[in-house]
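chain below, 327 aa
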Amino acid sequence: MLLLSRDDVQSVLSMKDAITAVEEAFKEFARGMVEMPVRLSIPVERYGGVMLTMPAYIGGTFDALGQKVVTVYPENQEKCKLPTILATVQLFEPKSGNCIAVLDGTIITAMRTGAVSGVATKYLALNDSKSVAVLGAGVQAETQLEAVAEERSIEVAKVYDPVEQRKALYCEKMSRKLGIVVSAARDPRQAIRGSDIVICASTARTPVFKGEWLESGMHINATGSHTPDTRELDTATIKRSKVVVDSREAALKEAGDLLIPIGEKSISSQHIWAELGEIILGKKEGRTSSQEITLFKSVGLALQDVSTAAVAYRKAIEQRKGIEVAL
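prediction:
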């Protein structure tokens, strides 16, 4: 069995690799070649956290089997000096069921979450998109912007986060990493104004901006909230947008951004236009005009983790990274 640390994963896995892997996995999902139950969630109310177990088998030409165990503790950064999201991924040999690898899943989670937004951006954002609003300045927000910049020629980004120090560090780091102008916005409205793409990657439990602020042609990637009683997007945003999800089943179980407006009877489940895989395969159209507001809502699927981890594992084998152990 191969053990791959966070440094190992980072050394072999590029955002381009992750985007390619996730796009291929969603193709197999749309073809019906993925076995993937909705994740099991265990709340840890005493400490304000949750543990999630996410298994998947990706069939077809991809042929990967694995699972991620992830914990989400929104107060970790302030209380424990740890990331909000911590995870481990196991990979298994599909033919035998033998465990072939254990990978640090924190960077896998960040990369695959960014990657799926990169895929959504590829199919839904305006081709000439150059500016981005980023709401949230944590690790997830970093890979979100990196993935969007991989798919579009981004020149400027404006970021808002209620923690001033985190916002300043984000601007410095991402400006240097991507070679673009990343500046701090004083509030969400200033960040959104004039932007082509809006990234929502916060830990907020209530909407972070008003739908009335959106402008024609914008594309939104919303990945921060993933429980039925929390949301980053208000009802107006949902009603104004063509909504694409990673999985209808998962979204209608976990996405408060959609479930709350459905509960209000402001929309029905039919407001979901398509799953991302359907658009990738051409079963449904993505963006159809330059005026349309498009929205990709992701709650995160195990197929993203397994596909991204599988690519990292294959590259680690090629590059002789990691530590071989026998259990």
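The chain is about 40% helix and 25% strand. The chain has two domains: 2-109+303-324, 125-300.
thats it, cya
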